[in-house]
Amino acid sequence: MLVFLLIRLLSGEINTFFTSFLSGMRGPTRKRPCCVDVTNLDMSPEVVGETYREQASSHPCVKAIIFNTEYGQLCSDPKAQWVQDLTAKMKKVQ
C-alpha cells in the first residue's frame, strides 16, 4: 500500500492534501489548522480510526471532511461518494 501511495504522490495526484492546512492566529488563542484544498480521490484505504471532522467554509478554509491517516490529516471533498460512504459508517467528532 505504501508503494501505491508513493506512486500517487510522485505522479501529483494527491498534491498536498495531507499538508494543505493553514494555521492562523486570532487574538491570544490559536485557531485550529484548516484545509485550503480537498481531494476527491478515493483514499479510504489510508484512513485510520473511526472518527472524522467536518470543516465549514470560511476563507481561506474550504468545506471539507477531515480524516486521520497514518501520514497525517486528509482533507476530503464532502461531495465525493467515497467520503459520503465512509462518513456514514463512522462517528463524527467535534
Automatic annotation (TrEMBL):
Domain Chemokine interleukin-8-like per the UniProt entry, residue ranges: 31-90
Gene3D superfamilies given in the database record: 2.40.50.40
Keywords assigned by UniProt, alphabetized: Cytokine, Signal
Biological processes, Gene Ontology terms: immune response
A family per Pfam: IL8
SUPFAM superfamilies xref list: Interleukin 8-like chemokines
CDD domains: Chemokine (cd00169)
GO molecular function: chemokine activity
Leader sequence segment: 1-16
InterPro entries membership: Chemokine_IL8-like_dom (IPR001811), Interleukin_8-like_sf (IPR036048)
A cellular component annotation (GO) from this entry: extracellular space
Superkingdom, taxonomy of origin: Eukaryota
Protein name: Chemokine interleukin-8-like domain-containing protein
